[in-house]
């Protein structure tokens, strides 16, 4: 255990190279972090934190404030040589302290159901399972997309909104923003939100609502992406309400699920 010896602090622009080196060892070199690192290093809406041992960065993770009172943890990475020694726990503890200082009410994070390491870290700190989501994926299809239009009426709802791997608490301002940005598309009485992820080659169908037959048309539209730009379209679902429509539209149900954990900071 090195927990006591680990120094956790906010990252600065000077840490960029060392952060990239740690990231290189994650996800077989295809980590998204280098794509977002410059923006994360600005520490505008949160804090990218690094864990140092003897002055060398061995891990990092980020806390951001998604909306009022709600903090989001992401991008936890520890160099393989320093794993299982409490580095990720030290980073998460730092985020919990920062979250309390910032007056946040809740901290949350998401990971794959098979990522026992990531779940082990937050379970140790008292996070509880807040949701489990089926993951559907499809490749883009070529051909003429069906005609869809901007959504005029915002849907009602509650709980979490899965926007790729970021889970937002339901809030009207967010939906209005997506509507202004043209991300909300409708057909008949159905609607969906389509947006690009951290990797612009990945498109997420973030919300789906309305009658099944209309949803089927929207899913077909979602699949009609420029094949040279987009490698996959995905959707996460808590209730599998549109499972059949997703399968019929050519989406595959993954074995891995997305699991969301949250910690109440008000107690
Ligand atoms: C997930 C990750 C950040 C954990 O970092 P870490 O510093 O090794 O984690 P810790 O040492 O703080 O682990 C705390 C606890 O989590 C659990 N845990 C961590 N790694 C584990 C593993 N490989 N298998 C099973 N449990 C594990 C254990 O309960 C561990 O406590 P213990 O070692 O006393 O048994 C690291 O494995 C990593 O960088 N993985 C690749 C990237 C990744 O998956 N990031 C998370 C994406 S959401």
Give a written overview of the molecule:
- The chain has helices spanning 16-24, 33-41, 87-101, 116-124, 172-180, 212-223, 243-248, and strands at residues 7-10, 46-53, 56-67, 70-78, 106-112, 128-138, 149-150, 160-163, 166-169, 184-187, 190-196, 202-209, 232-237, 252-264.
- 26% of the residues lie in helices and 37% in strands.
- The model has no long low-confidence stretch (mean pLDDT 95).
- It has 267 residues and is of the alpha+beta class.
- The strands form 2 sheets. A 12-stranded mixed β-sheet has the order 1-2-3-4-5-14-6-13-12-11-10-7, with helices on both faces. Strands 8-9 form a two-stranded antiparallel sheet.
- Strand 12 (202-209), helix 6 and strand 13 form a beta-alpha-beta unit.
- The protein folds into 2 domains: 3-104, Aminopeptidase (3-Layer(aba) Sandwich); 134-261, Gcn5-related N-acetyltransferase (GNAT) (Aminopeptidase, 3-Layer(aba) Sandwich), CATH 3.40.630.30.
- The protein is built from 7 helices and 14 strands.
- Bound molecules: coenzyme A.
- Coenzyme A (COA) binds at residues 26, 76-78, 83-89, 111, 115-118, 120-121, 124.
């Amino acid at each position: 255990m090195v927990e006591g010896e680990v120094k956790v602090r906010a990252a600065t622009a000077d840490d960029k190279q060392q952060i990239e080196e740690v990231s290189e060892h994650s996800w077989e070199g295809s980590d998204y972090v280098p794509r977002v690192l410059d923006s994360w290093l600005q520490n505008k809406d949160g804090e990218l934190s690094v864990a140092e041992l003897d002055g060398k960065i061995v891990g990092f993770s980020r806390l951001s404030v998604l909306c009022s009172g709600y903090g989001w943890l992401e991008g936890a990475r520890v160099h393989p040589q320093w794993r299982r020694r409490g580095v990720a726990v030290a980073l998460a503890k730092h985020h919990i302290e920062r979250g309390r200082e910032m007056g946040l009410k809740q901290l949350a994070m998401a990971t794959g159901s098979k990522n026992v390491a990531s779940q082990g870290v937050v379970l140790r700190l008292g996070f509880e399972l807040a949701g489990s989501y089926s993951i559907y994926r499809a490749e883009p299809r070529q051909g003429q997309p069906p005609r869809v239009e901007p959504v005029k009426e915002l849907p009602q709802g509650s709980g979490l909104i899965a926007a790729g791997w970021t889970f937002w608490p339901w809030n009207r301002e967010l939906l209005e923003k997506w509507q202004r940005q043209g991300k909300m598309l409708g057909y008949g009485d159905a609607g969906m939100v389509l947006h690009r992820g951290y990797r612009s080659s990945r498109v997420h169908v973030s919300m789906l609502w309305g009658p099944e037959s209309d949803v089927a048309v929207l899913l077909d539209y979602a699949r009609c992406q420029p094949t040279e730009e987009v490698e996959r379209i995905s959707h996460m679902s808590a209730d599998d309400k549109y499972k059949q429509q997703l399968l019929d539209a050519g989406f595959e149900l993954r074995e891995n699920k997305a699991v969301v954990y949250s910690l109440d900071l008000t107690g």
